[in-house]
């Protein structure tokens, strides 16, 4: 088979695939990409995750809506706590070194 014949055959195959796609009869690819598979799993498991997190919140006694980082920062500053300070991290490091 000559190069020209091979190219004609490949173009014909591509045209056939394009016609199938346009007609909506293209079959699903053999395997989904990992990212797409993870998105589908997340969508399927979303309701279970929400239910589990609500149950956990009730179990530990957390109520109400989350306040968000900006509001938390304001509240810490109002209590005299500097959220930019790393005192907590320094204490953990000091405990490790003991």
Can you walk through the features of this model?
It is a single chain. The N and C termini lie far apart (78 Å). With 98 residues, the chain is mainly alpha-helical. It has 3 domains: 1-28; 31-64, no CATH class; 66-98, no CATH class. It is built from 4 helices and no strands. The mean pLDDT is 85.
Shape: elongated
Total discrete domains: 3
> What is the number of helical segments per DSSP (H or I, 4+ residues)?
4
**Stretches with pLDDT under 50, minimum 5 residues:** none
List the helices and strands and how they pair.
Elements: H1 3-23, H2 34-60, H3 69-78, H4 87-97
Keywords for this structure?
98 residues; 4 helices; elongated; mainly alpha; 3 domains
Concise description?
By secondary structure, this protein is mainly alpha-helical. It has helices at 3-23, 34-60, 69-78, 87-97.
